[in-house]
Amino acid sequence: MSENNITQNDILYMETKAIYVQLIRSLPHLASGPLDLDYIAEVAATTKDAQLVRKGIKVRDMLKELEDAGVIDHRDHYKLLVEEITQELTHLGNLKEKVIQETDSLEGVYNTILDHNNYLRSQLESYKAYLQNVRIQSGGDKNLKVGIGVEIEGGGRSKRGNNNNNKALVKGPVKFSHNNLERDGVITESTVPENRRSNIFFTISSPLPGTFVIAMHFKGRDKPILEMDLKLDDLLEKQQDSVELLDLEYVRLNVSKTLALLNKTFINRNK
């Protein structure tokens, strides 16, 4: 039906249908059986809700006007109008169910994200507490500044004694195969050809509390292919900033799983 062919009766018919849909959705018990449009209008007009009363009175007059115009007939219980109202209610009901399902699904996703966020926060707090303890424990002599590969001397201690302390601080190296790290999700991307991955392994050591050295090796070679120094607080900062990957040139590591690996290998063992 084109816009130019819409009559006043058509507009009245659509408005009547729309009001009945609103009334039935406001008073859902009226849809429990076959729709009785006269009864629905009467119930709405006698409720305590002023808005429903106005709509009930209005739709009752509109129903009579449509019948006078010959558009509907009370003798067949307004069959055509009832059918269209029923179809509209079914359509809206299906939409409501879909919205409810989508809402439930989104709530599930939201709760999962919240749980994961709480887990990450608890992990972060654990690492921060550990890092603070490390800083306190390693800050006994304020005159000593220690870096990776630097031999500690001075402070009234003998060189031999300091070497022993250094050795006591160093933990590892701990060896991990490329395949195992990839299987555990620590390695997320690798440019190493698959036929050579079985010959690749990594070592991780902790020369100082909160400091780690990760080295990539090829079986049969004395020197590592690459080495990288990792600081615990740097990794924690990356995790807090939602940086997911750590680039080691040949492989990329998952930051959260790398932290978990370091925690399991070096930190939890000291507790």
TrEMBL record:
Any Gene Ontology CC annotation: cell cortex
GO molecular function: GTPase activator activity
GO biological process: negative regulation of Ras protein signal transduction
Pfam families in alphabetical order: RasGAP_C
Residue ranges of every copy of the RasGAP protein C-terminal domain listed in the record: 52-190
InterPro entries linked to this entry: RasGAP_C
Protein name: Glyceraldehyde-3-phosphate dehydrogenase 1
Gene this protein is translated from: GAP1_2
